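Researcher: Structure prediction, please.
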Amino acid sequence: MRLETGIRQPAAIELYRSAGYVETQPFGSYELDPLSIFMEKKL
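Model: Predicted structure follows.
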């Protein structure tokens, strides 16, 4: 599973990390954005 969230969402980032998500590169039609964090979790 993959997701994108904003760098100004620390509670969301911590929630995703605690659920096993790790940072990754942009995916799909997303481009690298300094205000975004891309995360994924292998199922």
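Model: The beta strands are 2-6, 22-24, 36-40.
Researcher: Thanks, that helps.
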